[in-house]
Specification:
Elements (H helix, E strand, L loop, with lengths): L1 H33 L5 E10 L5 E12 L3 E3 L1 H11 L2 H17 L6 E5 L2 H4 L4 H12 L6 E5 L2 H4 L2 H13 L3 E7 L6 H6 L4 E4 L1 H4 L6 H17 L3 E3 L5 H9 L4 E2 L14 H4 L6
Parallel strand pairs: 2-4, 4-5, 5-6, 6-7, 7-8, 8-9
Antiparallel strand pairs: 1-2, 1-9, 2-3
The structure holds ligand C2E and magnesium ion (3 copies).
Ligand C2E binds next to strand 2, helix 2, helix 3 and strand 6.
Protein name: PAS domain S-box-containing protein/diguanylate cyclase (GGDEF)-like protein
Organism: Microvirga subterranea
């Protein structure tokens, strides 16, 4: 009997697996068409200077409105886009759209764009970034590329060369999701980062959770010691904000200041005069 149940479980597992594979294939297929079908959009989330509460820039976050499934989280489709290589085309689209959008603003705010390891490690990446800056007319100083440490893993020497070239054309580099994944302190010393983004998982409940508080305090100390500004991700409450402010964090991003939204929602920030 036990044996029979065991087999049943095994079969069920097999079916579930192939369904997951099928599901991924479908998403992959739909992803290939999503841009031309106009299903992709960019949501912009403000980055705010703690203290003055002024908006210093926006992070561009990709949104996909699937014709059947509706809004799909980037946490679901970005990994599939990365595995299938489709991220190269999608990532180029995001970069071009975000730079064109930012170049139309009256105020010289920063625009932060997430880029995947596959993009950064593509030999033509620096040329592509330069071309997009040229065609959009965006000042390179206004563009910040957000990369995670996964970019540095496969070929650290080439990654260093690429990041150095990006810095040379005037673009800045932020280390995203700091403290998660492959984090290594030596990455902060060996690569030319301009900013550290503390991952949301540490910011959550810093005002009530002593472990989270200790980690955030340490990252802020690290930033100070290395001369690197630190931005806190995922700030949702005034308690979290008060803690960050008291500990010397100067910049924050999170639902407390604004959810990612279509850029029109921020017209009074991006433009000098709102039009009626
Ligand atoms: P990320 O770059 O770390 O972006 C921050 C994520 O935290 C975003 O999720 C944002 O909506 C969310 N967030 C911001 N503030 C809060 C908050 O106060 N509370 C909570 N609960 N969440 C908050 P989103 O938009 O779902 O994106 C998830 C991830 O997908 C991003 O993490 C990034 O790794 C990736 N991603 C998004 N757009 C792109 C893109 O254009 N290219 C690439 N390569 N990756 C992207
Ligand atoms: Mg990011
Ligand atoms: Mg992040
Ligand atoms: Mg992330």
């Amino acid at each position: 009997r036990a044996k029979k149940e065991g087999r049943g479980t095994y079969r069920f597992f097999e079916v579930a697996m192939s369904e997951e594979v099928r599901e991924r294939r479908m998403i992959e297929h739909d992803l290939r068409l999503a841009i031309e079908k106009g299903e992709m959009a960019i949501a912009y989330q403000p980055q705010t200077r703690i203290g003055t509460q002024e908006i210093t820039g926006f992070e561009a976050l990709l949104r996909w409105n699937h014709p059947v499934r509706g809004d799909m989280s980037p946490a679901v489709f970005i990994p599939i886009a990365e595995e299938s290589g489709i991220i190269l085309r999608i990532g180029e689209w995001v970069l071009r759209e975000a730079c064109r959008e930012a170049s139309s603003w009256d105020r010289p705010l920063k625009i932060a764009v997430n880029v995947s390891a596959l993009q950064v490690n593509n030999p033509t990446f620096v040329t592509l970034v330069q071309a997009i800056l040229d065609e959009s007319g965006l000042a390179p100083e206004r563009l910040e590329l957000e990369i995670t440490e996964s970019v540095l893993i496969r070929d650290p020497e080439r990654a260093l060369q690429t990041l150095t070239q990006l810095k040379a054309i005037g673009v800045s580099i932020a280390m995203d999701d700091f403290g998660t994944g492959y984090s290594s302190l030596s990455n902060l010393r060996n690569f030319p980062f301009d900013k550290i983004k503390i991952d949301r998982s540490f910011v959550r409940a810093i005002d009530v959770n002593i472990q989270a508080a200790a980690i955030v305090r340490a990252v802020l100390g690290l930033g100070r010691g290395l001369g690197l500004p630190v931005i806190a991700e995922g700030v949702e409450t005034n308690g979290e904000l008060a803690f960050l402010n008291a500990e010397g964090c100067r910049e924050a991003q999170g639902y407390l200041f604004g959810q990612p939204a279509p850029i029109e929602m921020f017209r009074s920030v991006t433009h000098a005069e709102a039009v009626a």
